[in-house]
Amino acid sequence: MSSIADKAVREEVRLSELDIEAIEMFINFFKVIGLPKSVGEIYGLLFVATRPLSMEDLMERLQISLGAASQGLKLLRSVGAVKVVYAPGERRDHYVADLELSKFATSFIRDELKPRLERALQRVERMESLAEEMDPKERKVAFQRIDRLKHWMERGQKMMPWILKFLVT
After folding, report:
1. 138-144-146-152 Cα dihedral, nearest 10 degrees
2. Axis-axis angle for helices 136-168, 101-108 (nearest 10)
3. What is the pLDDT of residues 122-163, one digit of tens each?
């Protein structure tokens, strides 16, 4: 391929400033909730895309691997943040961002955050039983800290229905 053709290909896949801003914003957002960078990249690009994109389009424009694109799209589809749309004349699946982030947030809270909180509460209970076996001098401090954890967990549980209600309306 000639250097002019190489440049044309690079120009075609270059990200716009809008693309970059959206991608960076969603990378940071998804990072907060523990998702990989590639998930934020994919959703960010789809969010500002003016047309549906194939997985190959995403891989090329974001310079990500097949595995990262496949896993990212699978996760985003599973939580309702991305959907497959029909592209006339194309055999490959094409994707668009679902702009209702409340669906994603609700799904994430229900399927990820709530179970993690429940597992954390089980750990706190186990910590209490382990603290019972400690030397009495150390037990007091351990229970103070465990009580603090329980307080945080209880507040989180109390906020969960409110957050879900807020997102649905």
Report:
1. -160
2. 150
3. 999 999 999 999 998 899 999 999 999 888 888 877 877 777
Residue in 71, 25, 17 with CA at minimum distance from that of residue 82: 71
User: 165 CB contacts (<8 Å, ≥6 apart)?
Assistant: none
Q: Looking at the domain 3-98, which fold is it?
A: Arc Repressor Mutant, subunit A (1.10.10)
Would you state the structure tokens that stand for residue 83, as one six-digit string?
A: 């959907």
Q: In the β-sheet with 53-54, what is the strand arrangement from edge to edge?
A: 53-54, 94-97, 82-85
Domain ranges for the chain: 3-98, 102-168
Rounded Cα gap, residues 140 and 132, in angstroms: 10
Q: Which two tokens stand for residue 49?
A: 């895309």
**Tokens representing residue 59 in the block:** 């891989």
Taken in order 46, 81, 56, 66, is the CA torsion positive or negative? positive
For the whole model, what pTM was predicted? 0.65
Alpha carbon distance 7, 39 (integer Å): 28
Smallest CA-to-CA distance from 10 within 18, 40, 2, 21 is with 2
